Amino acid sequence: MISLLDYGAGNVRSLRNAIHALGFELTEIKRPEDILKAERLIFPGVGAFGAAMERLHRLGYVEPLKAYLAAGRPYLGICIGLQALFEGSDESPGVAGLGVIPGRIRRFDAPGLSVPHMGWNDVRVERDSPLFAGYAGEKLYFVHSYHAEPHAENADWRLATTDYGTPFLSAVQRGRVGAVQFHPEKSGAAGLRLLRHFLAGEEGGVPAAGRSACTEPTRFAKRVIACLDVRSNDAGDLVVTKGDQYDVRESGAVRNLGKPVELAERYYEEGADEITFLNITGFRDFPLADQPMLEVLKRTSERVFVPLTIGGGIRAFTDDSGRAYSALDVADEYFRSGADKISIGSDAVAAVEAYLARGGVKDGSTAIEQIAAVYGNQAVVISIDPRRVYVDSPEATRHAVVETATPGPNGERYGWFQCTVKGGREGRDVDVVELARACEALGAGEILLNSIDRDGTGAGFDLELIGQVRAAVSIPVIASSGAGCVEHFAEVFAATGVEAALAAGIFHRREVPIQAVKSYLREQGIEIRS
Ligand code: 1PR
């Protein structure tokens, strides 16, 4: 029997799903005394270090956990479940960790490095371990802003290291106590294999192949994301649709490109690094009333073991009976249904307008701040729907302009990118640069950058737009809208340095398979996850 130490600080549904999919039963730790009764214990920490330790203390779990670890009993820590083993973290100064492993947790901090470290990276397995039995050098999924430093004092714990600006401990193990910084439950088949070794209590096993004993630097991959725009069609069925410049109707009817769960599963099998669902009418319908959408998410998360993002309708809402819901309530339900990240569109624009009107002062009132405080910055994606506005000169507007290689209808040589809300229906007096910067300051962890002008055109990503936003923030940016062929992916990575590229239409219509994109990127020398 496997015991899960879910102390209620975040979303562990993905891990539960992975464990069930592997055919294992789980029991929950409900009281301090359950910890010492556990046969195998998993600690899937999420969120901030200080919040995790504070909850462990409040629940009376710290002492039994220390006793369990001191006895060398089977333990698998994941993410914060690794970091908590150390003495403390710069994330939460003054808060003591479990102190099992010597050393402190530090923030990633190197010029030009996007933080969080979010995506697929290699691990250098430095010695044989049953956890990595059969491991053949596949990339694994990481998402964290803080890391454990390898030191002489913790050398006996060192199992694997990864480079992200600096080398850090991506796996530790001593005896039967082990922990990993990456998320095995979100790392596809390679992660599930590792998880199975722990769950099955396999103590022997073959040594890791591939990168074992390897000393070369690990390589962080660019991500290729499949996006499913979802809404009800006129018959009331939830379908994957796809617009041309956000118009999803053809001859009056909503385009139907397939069933959401089936398509998501197909993209997982075909090697998508992440799947994003956008509930595109969420701005007008209350998402919590949209049970089919929540069901789609639940069923997908039982079968798809890469990160899932969902957006659409995340905002405060009062229903017909007068009951008020906060944006955090809406996000909670998405996380409970299997999302790893949520994406906020229209409400982020409103939040930024209010934040700028306050003179750039944070007051904790925005959905971005509230959701990030509970689930961590990495779980909050901002989806931007910009439209190009041409001007004759930079002086003609107060907004951040680009000099454009594609002049406007009257030969204008400059343009700025106006944020819109409600699926592009309404433009606001906010540009992408001020929106992206303000969202980063409010605590967002990633930007999903669409383009209404390029969406569905197959004309390629808008490099001017994407380059402008990439240069403005240090959180990861996902380029979206306009992918028409494999070359467009290589182009956007080379020209802008974004961390990920997303496409919809070419994948749905089977014009370009995900593996064709990846093969081409590999040929171009761009690091990807195979
Ligand atoms: O504003 O928080 O309720 O969120 C609504 C979400 O729905 C936003 O993320 C917004 O981008 C999205 N959305 C709203 N209306 C539409 C529409 O198409 N009518 N979809 C829409 C936006 C954009 C992409 C698309 C790429 C790639 N879709 O995500 O998948 O452009 O397409 P391509 O590769 O075929 O060019 P809120």
TrEMBL record:
Pathway: Amino-acid biosynthesis; L-histidine biosynthesis; L-histidine from 5-phospho-alpha-D-ribose 1-diphosphate: step 5/9. Its EC number is 4.3.2.10, 3.5.1.2. Its main location: cytoplasm. Keywords: Amino-acid biosynthesis, Cytoplasm, Glutamine amidotransferase, Histidine biosynthesis, Hydrolase, Lyase, Multifunctional enzyme. GO terms for biological process: L-histidine biosynthetic process. Gene3D superfamilies: 3.40.50.880, Aldolase class I. One of its GO terms (cellular component) is cytoplasm. It catalyses: L-glutamine + H2O = L-glutamate + NH4(+); 5-[(5-phospho-1-deoxy-D-ribulos-1-ylimino)methylamino]-1-(5-phospho-beta-D-ribosyl)imidazole-4-carboxamide + L-glutamine = D-erythro-1-(imidazol-4-yl)glycerol 3-phosphate + 5-amino-1-(5-phospho-beta-D-ribosyl)imidazole-4-carboxamide + L-glutamate + H(+). PROSITE patterns: GATASE_TYPE_1. GO terms for molecular function: glutaminase activity; imidazoleglycerol-phosphate synthase activity; lyase activity. Residues 4-198 form the Glutamine amidotransferase domain. It is found in: Cytoplasm. The active site is at C79 (nucleophile), H183, E185. Pfam families: GATase, His_biosynth. It comes from the Bacteria. Heterodimer of HisH and HisF. IGPS catalyzes the conversion of PRFAR and glutamine to IGP, AICAR and glutamate. The HisF subunit catalyzes the cyclization activity that produces IGP and AICAR from PRFAR using the ammonia provided by the HisH subunit. IGPS catalyzes the conversion of PRFAR and glutamine to IGP, AICAR and glutamate. The HisH subunit catalyzes the hydrolysis of glutamine to glutamate and ammonia as part of the synthesis of IGP and AICAR. The resulting ammonia molecule is channeled to the active site of HisF. Belongs to the HisA/HisF family. This is Imidazole glycerol phosphate synthase subunit HisH. It comes from Allochromatium palmeri.
